[in-house]
Amino acid sequence: MVLIKTKKEIPSSEITPEAVYLSRRKFIGQSSAVVAAGALAQSSLALPESWIEDQGYEPGEDIDEDITPEKHATNYNNFFEFGTDKKDPAKHAHQMTVDPWSVEIKGLVEKPGKLPLEDVIKDIDLEERIYRLRCVEAWSMVIPWIGFPVKSVLDKVKPLSGAKYVKFTTLLRESEMPGTKARFSSIEYPYVEGLRLDEANHSLAIFAIGMYGKVLPNQNGAPFRLVVPWKYGFKSIKSIVQIELTRRQPKTTWNLSAPQEYGFYANVNPEVDHPRWSQATERRLPQGIFARSIETKMFNGYDEVASLYEGLNLKRNF
Amino acid sequence: MARPRLSFLATKPAKWIVGLLFAIPLLLLLNDVRIELFDPGARLGPNPGDVLVDRFGTWSIRILYLTLLVSSISRLFKIPILVQHRRTCGLFAFTYVVLHFTAYLSAILGFDFNTLLGDFSKRPYIMFGMIALLLLIPLAITSTRGWRKRLKLNWKRLHRLIYLIAVLAFIHLSMQERSTYTDTVIYGSILVLLFVERIVYALRQRVARANAASAPS
């Protein structure tokens, strides 16, 4: 499948443009969603090869800008619950039990409750989205996710009129997460992230259950994570166990730990430096030692989200 | 008590061995770089620039503090011969700091000197680190026996800058800690102990001198 971005300032078809993915064939119909749920039940396994072929998934075809090799996307991770070294998540995340997995939906919703993940994704079509992932640490990757819009879940649980924000919480299970027992820690667990409700409802915001045509590896946030491609990576919270609709802006982990460094919005913005480094450029991984960095784009190149922030001072609300 | 074996420390082979030990991390890293040039990602992962800067930085502060530790140990355990290796130690600390800076300048900044100046003026942790590097230069230059003789008492005064450098390096490191304070605690404790030992030593010297002066002749 050819994915072509028509706007010329966006250099490649690495991104799935909204217009195209909305019209393109869905990868899984209702019956195949059961396949996905079945695969999740044994989530250490890949989705069946035949499934990928049936859906016509041909990774990397006609893509100008390279998809990050899978081995890097799965071995260079920030998931501090498993340690702060980039290799720690790949080393330790296998300890995390991801089956069974349930997600508690609470707060200002019509249908609160604790649901098995299978039920959360029931009747939802899966799609592949190839997104840039820009880390706040000034590196980036291009990753083919498998997932579905956040909106499709929110529509099912029906937020009440007073709901303004969505708060997401990561699993906290100390016995399976060596990083949470670290001494001298300055961040608190469980990890919490949040979005404004209209951000969460934007069609680019997805929940992912897979990547590279397979079920998510644990270090990448199995079995169920958020992907918000126009924000720094730390907003795309992993291994979600709770979704709460709130009236007030939730207190998010990095923002609490260092408010001058990590804002609530955390939109990718080349004009707002991190206090310790410039955000004007990024290293597209893997990057050779002497390779040049590339320029970072506003909203990570996803201009279609700009209307969400009209009238908002993005320098102050970084 | 006789310590016949310690006299080995003063020999040429001992100096070579010490030098080689300090060179090991450097040689291993250079080998990683060599492999990376042919097979990117093979040794240092997908973000080799960050890894290089980080590893050279870590070795810099380790060897810098070790340099200060050499004097402490030589006093505490009465092994004055050890001090003969302090210069090698200090020069290696300087070498690793220069490599740390070079990796940052090349792999992170791509030799973009405007960003370098921007970083220096806008980011205190970079400023502290660069001042530490600049202050190390006169110490490295005057580390030879010739300079030591030429500067006489001033040599000692000049080389006290190492304490300022050690503190700057600590601040530089500590300001970059994010989710844990582990390094701050470890290097902070070492730094405090190094200072405590020197203060205690200086006080004892003063008491000893006072006693000597007041002793009946």
Question: Would you write up a description of this structure?
Answer:
The complex is a heterodimer of chains A (318) and B (217). Chain A is 17% helix and 20% strand. Chain A is of the alpha+beta class. Chain A has one domain: Sulfite Oxidase, Chain A, domain 2, CATH 3.90.420. In chain A, strands 3, 4, 7, 8, 9, 11 and 12 form a 7-stranded mixed β-sheet that branches. Chain A has a 5-stranded mixed β-sheet with strand order 2-1-10-5-6. The longest helix of chain A is centred in the first third of the chain and has 12 residues. In chain A, 46% of the residues are buried. The N terminus of chain A is likely disordered. In chain B, helix 1 runs antiparallel to helix 2 and helix 8 runs antiparallel to helix 9.
Query: Which class best fits the helix and strand makeup of chain A?
Result: alpha+beta
Name given to the CATH homologous superfamily of chain A: Oxidoreductase, molybdopterin-binding domain
Distance between the termini of chain B: 30 Å
Give the H and E element order of chain B.
HHHHHHHHH
Q: Fraction of residues of chain A in helices?
A: 10-25%
| Number of separate strands of chain A | 12
Outline of chain B: globular
Low-pLDDT windows of residues of chain A: 1-53, 56-62
Q: Can you tell me the number of structural domains of chain A?
A: 1
Proportion of β residues of chain A? 15-25%
Name its key features.
heterodimer, A: 318 residues, alpha+beta, Sulfite Oxidase, Chain A, domain 2, 7-stranded mixed beta sheet, B: 217 residues, 9 helices, 77% helix, globular
